[in-house]
Amino acid sequence: MSYITDAPNTWCEGCGNFAILHSIRRIIEEYEKNGSKKDEIVLVAGIGCHGKIADYLNINTVYSLHGRAIPFATGIKIANPDLKVICCVGDGDSYAEGLEHLLFAAKRNVDITVIVHDNRVYGLTMGQYTPTSPDSYHGKTNPGDGKEKPFNPLKLLLCSGATFLARGYTGRMDQLQKLIWSGMSHKGFALIEVLQVCASFYDKSSFYDRHIYEYQGDSGDINEAFILAGEWDYNSDSDIPAGIIYEEIRQIFEERFEYETTDLKSRRKAVIEYFGL
Amino acid sequence: MGEKGSEIEILIGGKAGEGINRAGQVIAEILSEMGYYIFMIFDHPSLIKGGHNYSIIRASEHPVGGIKRKPDIVLALDKNTIKLHEAELSPHTVVIFNSDKVKNAEGIGIPAVSIVDSAGGVPIMINSCLIGAFCKTAGLEWSDVEQILLDKFPVRSALNLDIARKGYDISEVKFQLIRAGENRAKLITGSESLGLGLCYGGIEGYIAYPMSPASGILHFLSSKKDEFNLKVFQPEGEIAAILMAEGMACCGCRAAVGTSGGGFCLMNEGISYSGLAEIPIVIINSQRQSPSTGAPTYTAQSDLPYAISAGHGEFPRIVISPGNAEQAFMWSAKAPGLAWKYQVPVIILTDVTLNDSLYSLSPETVINEDYDYGYKEVDEGPYLRYRFTGDGISPLGFFNGNSGPVKINGKTHDESGISTENPRILEKLAEKRIRKASIIKRDMEGEKCVLRSGNSNSGTTVVSWGSNGPLCSELCSRLKIRSVQPIVLHPFPEKQFETAISESSKIIVVEDNSTGQLSELMKSYGFFSDNRILNYSGRQISLETLEKRLMEVI
């Protein structure tokens, strides 16, 4: 059975989303080869160019709302902790409109894998600036008379309690696929911040190709992680580490909901007992 | 000495933090044990300490729908209680007051602080002392109340009982309250009843962000989550709450959310999502007075057109407004089944009066109703989440591996759930929603959507909704006029409503808002009211005031 639907693909030529789509497709293929079923996976997407991935993958999906993939994913995990949930979100999507949900999912250590398609620009709505656009970037809505520095999402997530943090790049698909696989194997909240080019509005491939290097050091020390996360501030021309930035094991959110949900009859019986009948 | 046979009203007041609500409940429980029907309101400003809190308990041999605000007995923990309620006192009102705090008052002074101090108690036990005094004043025998009191004091019961006894001994008999019968009912708040109904209707999850007056449901279900095997969670806000509940629904797990106006505003995104993606969800909106933060702990019925239209775009939904604990249980138990059957949002509109008040509920009358609706299950062949069908309802598949990939989509989509903006499919999707809406309207006429009480031959008809329903029902029965309460407000039960008001020469609509929202809604279906009695003080109108205002227009 094909892992890709027959929905026509409308991403621009050269879009970084293709690398993420095919990384996920390969991972699902790998999953099924290892005896798992793709029905045990749910992909939740936000709204933006990235969100179309929900139409293109022939698996369980929720094409959710702008910024709101995380609460849908959290609800799915509350209902059924055994499902493997991947959230594909955008930088405008989840670092702007839906930031609170992202930070709270990290705080709670919800066992989901969040892939941020960070092209540092709003693509679908025509090139406005996002929380990770550098202060030199000026779209239609932030003309050059004001400067606003980007925030560093990795540092923000470290502060919020994320238990798995990695950075990947759509120009290095093999590493990206390994990082997503590691994130999905991690028991807890995993976020893979993926630097991706926007072919139409913000094509930084030559900059990324020059500056991104593969990091393979220690990822168990939070102080080291802060230093590594801070090496590039999303604004300057410094080198950019890609790899696993931080990993720890902590109790996951879903454990508190793991008791068996009883059928309707026993719930009704409990109410009748409450009434003392 | 006053004769009190069939009913009595008691007001207990003091500062926030003094346990007024709990003390009121104990008095209500004593009277309930004596066979009385109870209705108790709890009036409290939005603060933790200080201010003025009070409860009014009305107990009667007949079902109670409201309060009179003419207390027979006042229990005053402070001077304010007497000062602020002066206009409500009548010559026969007996005031029992804490004489250590209140000076120069007329009535029965109880040195409650000194009694508690000398017994080695803590300040909250002043309530026990005054409750003891109340029992004597009402004419109850100590031997009758001793066991009840012991049961109602969960901690340090012996000391509380000792203090209550000292209050009892020092007080005076002013009434002769007789036993009204066997205790048939359970005392329950509207919030508790809503929670129990949801569980009975099969919800497995309740997700809510704290917000008065809906928090009572969250607190109750949270405390009972193990007993009822329920997943209860407080997320980061109302947007997250409704979307988490919808995520649960995608897995086949019935879920509900509860909030008040401001939170309901935030939930609109999720309501609209449910409308397009056809996710079943139950939303309780407990109305508070005024827009914005408004008056969080005061009542209103001012979100009716909003609830009917909340969320952008056009999509079917059901809006229900129960009026007391019995109706709250029944309709919150029906709501999950209805949401599931039609894959729509079901909104339960309540208010401060319903959520916070205490009611007598006879469980036997509600548990045997039919709450099973079923839903269209996945059948043979390749699964299409949004398959076009004759009635607009597609088979409901979940993320459980039983049907192949399930694609949920909040964008316009084809039958499989893949996005499309094809004009033909956009039309078909809109028509799917319209077909579903007409099926819901047809089916709902089979439910008891409109209640009629009082004198059905009377040409004068009082129409009310929500918590005013039982209030108007009680008054209309006494005045021998007709009372009509539509519980389902959307889709508007036109046929049942027409029958209920048929041959009325005068229609008076009673509402807790300033614009006549139900009256306007009725008008849009061709039902015209002759008079509107509108109350927007944040407090439910009293029986006395309502009677006076009715008499002005009848």
What does this molecule look like?
The complex is a heterodimer of chains A (277) and B (554). In chain A, helix 1 packs across helix 7 and helix 4 (91-97) packs across helix 5 (99-108). Chain A has 277 residues and is of the alpha/beta class. Chain A starts with 16 loop residues before the first helix and ends with a helix. Chain A has helices spanning 17-33, 53-56, 69-79, 91-97, 99-108, 153-160, 173-185, 205-211, 222-229, 264-274, and strands at 41-45, 60-63, 84-90, 113-118, 164-169, 190-195, 212-214, 240-247. Chain A has a single domain, classed as Thiamin diphosphate (ThDP)-binding fold, Pyr/PP domains (Rossmann fold), CATH 3.40.50. Chain A has an 8-stranded mixed sheet with strand order 2-1-3-4-6-5-8-7, sandwiched between helices. Chain B has an 8-stranded mixed sheet. Chain B has a 7-stranded mixed sheet with strand order 9-8-10-11-13-12-19, sandwiched between helices. A 5-stranded mixed sheet of chain B has the order 16-18-17-20-21, with helices on both faces. In chain B, strand 4, helix 2 (79-84) and strand 5 form a beta-alpha-beta unit. The mean pLDDT of chain B is 95. Chains A and B meet through strand 2, helix 3, helix 5 and helix 10 of A and helix 7, helix 9, helix 10 and strand 15 of B.
Features:
heterodimer, A: 277 residues, alpha/beta, Rossmann fold, eight-stranded mixed β-sheet, 10 helices, 8 strands, B: 554 residues, Pyruvate-ferredoxin Oxidoreductase, domain 3, seven-stranded mixed β-sheet, globular
